[in-house]
Amino acid sequence: MSIFGSLSTGVLGLTAQSRALGHIADNIANSQTVGYKRVDSAFETLVLQSSSRLHAPGGVIAKAQFQNGIQGGLTQVQSATNLAIQGQGFFTVTVPTEDAAGQADLFYTRVGDWELDEERFLTNSNGFRLNGFVEDPDTGEVNTFGAIQPIQIANTLDRPVPTSEIDLFANLPATPKLGEPAPSTTINVFDDLGRPQELTLKWRQQAQDDWRLIVEAPSSLAGTSPLGPGFDGQQPVANEGAVTQGRPARKQVDTITFGTAANNIQVGETYTVNVNGTAFSQSITADNVGTLVNFDGVADALAAQINSSVPSPGVQATTVSGGELVLTANNAGTGFSSSTQITDATKTTNSVPISATVSSAAAGQAQITQLTFSETGLDVGDSFTVSIIPDATGVAQVFSLTATTGNFSNLRNVNGVAQTLADQINADPTSTVVATTSGPSIILTGKTATAAASFTLGSAVSNGSLAPNTVSSVRLPTNVTGIQQSQTISLSGGVGDIGANFQITVRSPTQANFSATTSVAAATSVQQVSTATFDAAATLTAGQEYRIVVDGTTYSTLITDDNVDTLINVDGVISDLVSKINNDFGSSVTASAQAGGSGGITLTAKFADDSFTVTQPSIQSFNQLFQLPQNQNGLNGTTGNELTIADIATTLATQINGAGLPISATVNGGTLTVTSTQDDVAFDVTTATSAGTTPGHVRLQFGGNSPTGVQVPAGTIRQIGIVGPGGTAVAPTQTNAGDPANVRFTVDFGAGPQEISLNLGAFQRAQGVTQFAGETVNVSAVQQNGSPRGQFKNVEINDNGDVLVNFDNGRSRVVAKVPLTLFNNPNALQRENGGVFSQTANSGEPNGPFLPTQNGTGQLVPNSLEQSNVDIADEFTKLIVTQRTYTANSRIVTTSDEMLQEALNLKR
């Protein structure tokens, strides 16, 4: 009956929708589950009987439809071991348990949140271990053709890797900065035990486009150095130049003489002396003429002004009797200029006085006579005389007066002369007249009144010298600048070598003594004669000095390699000393060689009454060796780091200047100049040199023509050579364009021989090491392939499936590869707990494992997880539909029930 069939169909519909609701619920519940694959519902009808004449209601069933092959969304995460699959494929996993045969069941999953578990297996959050191709412990390689097994990070140590390759990228300057050594390059390498070792590269430009490279491995065992110990270097040379003999400085002396033979100074005169542009003047006045007195006084006054001047004009003034002013330079060798000037006074010519009788004698009257001088001016040296002859006796009474510097300040002029003469007349008790004055006139009045003349008058005037005063100047001696002994030493060779030494010995000369006698002593009109006698039989040798001091002035002859053959013997020395004494214009003596080769010098004073001294000087004694300091080998000599011969000369000069000796040294290039610091210090220089060792080195040549005649681009490597035997370094034999430019050498740091290739780029290519413009070595990069022992740091998985273990030494190692497995029908896989699937008959056999992107597998996405492929919106839509369908099916059941109830009620 159809009512019962409808009821059964409604019940089946409710059951099917209930199952569909379960599928939806499962999807919604796992919408956030990593790698979850949704389940869709597939409805299938049940047909009991169906034809055109009769259809019996059958019903429906709901089957699960798995969507295992549909990609879920990818989410980026921080973990370096989390993986997602973009595309087809499954991770192969196992559970940490094994069956009785020791085999673990294989499962497949898309859940890729891998982390290391306590046993260091890569395990996901559901406890399944990731399988993959693992490292062969014997070969260290990952065999991608072998069986897969759980990936375990068992090795947490990375064995050290000895350095075998060094790549150097640097530019050597075409024009290095002068005076600055090229900086060395230190490279850290590792030996077989992982110990850090140092290689040092030292650069030196030998010539244009030609560089020296020294490779040092200080820790390498003896006999395993990259380069040999070196070979005999260039013989250094130290050539002594000619000696410039010293000469003591002499002080300039100017003698200024004032006046004439009369030695009279005149009021109104001005005497001026100019020293180094400063004028000193002394004027003669009526007030000071009595103090100055004569030219000695003028000289004394000017000397006082000069000596008290601030600042000093550079001279010391003294006076000598006779009106001489002597100016002596304060410092020997420092000259001065001087000049003189006289402003003359206006001379007065006085004549015989005019006398006239004012009143003749008469009865009761005395005679009055007036004497008048014709001029009022007065000069020192003018003389005035008045004679009074009384008639009674006829004996003249003479009164006279001469103007001197002593009385000039009182007289001042002729009026004073008249007054002074009148005073003399009145003071004479025998005088028969009384004198009064009126200006230049003397009025004489007889003491007795007589009828006749009582006296007669006579007078005379004698003028002083009318010639102007003079000044003369004599320079004796002239300024003589001191000459300090000097000698040049030209150095050459040894630059770049190790142990090349330069020795300079500076010593005081050996003094030749003499005996001195005085045969004639100085006396009035007698000139002193003295003799200095050296050993005439002495042999001249370099380093001797013949020195004699006359009145404080030193004359010397130093015997040097340059003059020993010219002087020949002591007679030659005597001749040289005589010449030096006689050529000294300021010397107080003249010299002559004694006849007969006696070795004597006769010294004669230039002037009578002058005495002089002849003394044996003492010299400062010193003898010191200067040489280069100890180098890295503990020996005196060059270090090999000196850039130029000037560097070596500077080192020696610094030692000389710091020795405290009376000598100094200066440097000009490779020339060392040794100079005494005092005029009277002589010295002798001897030199010696010894050769050093040219270190073994790598020679790098740039540009120019290659050995085959090809023009090499400027700045690129043309050729590499090993210079010096004994090292392990080998240079390349092929130098064609593009060939590797490397230097191979073997070292042994105690862990066995270790070959290292120092890669400098390529021949004739602008790569690696070049030589372009610049002033210093510019190392841009140094790369070496060695590493020390490493500790486990972390693990990460790349998109190609490589499982990388990173160590704290900076190295990484691939310990496994993650493969993917494919199924022909992935939707037929059996779902298991933990988001894994197992193989079924409908899924087919697994294909693989294959590496990512191979044979249709998808791509691995590191730092990502695949999310559920559930669409919530879609699931909610299906949820609504399912609910409505379920309600509709329930209405079938209730309707069928009501219809059956009506059928049962028919019997009533």
Q: Brief overview, please?
A:
With 908 residues, the chain is mainly β. The longest helix has 33 residues, at 872-904. 33% of the residues are buried.
Query: Into which percentage range does the β-strand content fall?
Result: 35-45%
> Mind describing the biggest β-sheet?
10 strands, antiparallel
How far apart are the first and last residues' alpha carbons, in Å? 21 Å
- Tally of alpha and pi helices: 9
Arithmetic mean pLDDT? 87
Radius of gyration: 65 Å
Helix content: 10-25%
Q: Give the strand tally.
A: 63
Structural class by sheet pairing and helices: mainly beta
- 3D shape: elongated
**Low-confidence residue ranges:** none
Report on the structure:
The chain is mainly β. Helix content is 14%, strand content 38%. It is built from nine helices and 63 strands. The strands form 18 sheets. Strands 7, 8, 11, 12, 13, 55, 56, 57, 59 and 60 form a ten-stranded antiparallel beta sheet that branches. Strands 14, 51, 52, 53 and 54 form a five-stranded mixed beta sheet that branches. Strand 2 (49-50) and strand 3 form a beta hairpin. Helix 1 packs antiparallel against helix 9. The longest helix is centred in the C-terminal third of the chain and has 33 residues, at 872-904. The chain is elongated and about 230 Å long. The chain starts with a helix and ends with a helix. The model has no long low-confidence stretch (mean pLDDT 87).
SSE blueprint and pairings:
Blueprint: H1 2-29, E1 39-46, E2 49-50, E3 55-56, E4 59-66, E5 74-76, E6 83-86, E7 91-94, E8 106-109, E9 115-116, E10 122-123, E11 129-134, E12 149-150, E13 157-158, E14 165-171, E15 185-190, E16 196-207, E17 210-216, E18 231-232, E19 237-244, E20 253-258, E21 270-275, E22 278-283, H2 289-292, H3 295-308, E23 315-320, E24 324-329, E25 338-343, E26 354-359, E27 366-372, E28 383-390, E29 397-402, H4 408-411, H5 414-427, E30 433-438, E31 441-449, E32 455-462, E33 471-475, E34 486-492, E35 501-507, E36 510-512, E37 514-520, E38 529-534, E39 544-550, E40 553-558, H6 564-567, H7 570-582, E41 589-593, E42 600-605, E43 614-615, E44 623-627, H8 645-657, E45 663-668, E46 671-676, E47 684-690, E48 693-694, E49 697-702, E50 717-723, E51 740-748, E52 753-762, E53 769-770, E54 778-784, E55 790-797, E56 802-807, E57 812-817, E58 820-822, E59 830-832, E60 836-838, E61 847-850, E62 859-862, E63 864-866, H9 872-904
Parallel strand pairs: 14-52, 14-53, 36-39
Antiparallel strand pairs: 1-4, 2-3, 5-63, 6-62, 7-8, 7-11, 8-60, 9-10, 11-12, 11-57, 13-55, 14-54, 15-16, 16-17, 17-49, 18-48, 19-34, 20-24, 20-33, 21-22, 21-25, 23-24, 26-27, 27-31, 28-29, 28-32, 30-31, 34-46, 35-44, 35-47, 37-38, 38-42, 39-40, 39-43, 41-42, 45-46, 49-50, 51-52, 55-56, 56-57, ...
Helix pairs in contact: 1-9
